[in-house]
């Protein structure tokens, strides 16, 4: 199971959306997080050979949960959710229940469908008890105990 918590640019958010933190900024602030070749896409996100939904899709068929926060616009909650929606196309190859609505869920209303989960938590960039409880709820539905 993979969990993405407010990961934003370079994480779950779609880079080509150019919203919130952008590639040039993340390469400047955190150059040690990425290959130096990623700098070629500073202010040129539309030229990226793939976007973050492709990264999320490579996790399939393993369970994937993405979480965002209402006050963390820097991480682009809408872009994080859309990335998960687009990754769901690959997840559906493994199970038809892996469908997510195009519209983002309301704050504090988790969506759990098949191997996918998402929530938009009220508040800032953080990992809170609300987040952990949702992750544990998701794990309870996805991971089976071996006797």
Question: Notable features of this structure?
Answer:
globular, 13% strand, 147 residues, alpha/beta, Rossmann fold
Q: Could you give the topology of this structure?
A:
Elements: E1 2-5, H1 23-29, H2 52-57, E2 64-69, H3 77-91, E3 111-113, E4 116-121, H4 129-142
Parallel strand pairs: 1-2, 2-4
Antiparallel strand pairs: 3-4
What does this structure look like?
The model has no long low-confidence stretch (mean pLDDT about 95). About 35% of the residues are buried. This protein is about 30% helix and about 15% strand. By secondary structure, the protein is an alpha/beta fold. It has one domain: Alpha/Beta hydrolase fold, catalytic domain (Rossmann fold, 3-Layer(aba) Sandwich). Strand 3 and strand 4 form a beta hairpin. It starts with a strand and ends in a 5-residue tail after the last helix.
Radius of gyration: 15 Å
Taken together, the total number of domains comes to 1
Task: Classify the fold: give the CATH topology.
Answer: Rossmann fold
CATH top level class name: Alpha Beta
Beta-strand content estimate: 5-15%
CATH superfamily: Alpha/Beta hydrolase fold, catalytic domain
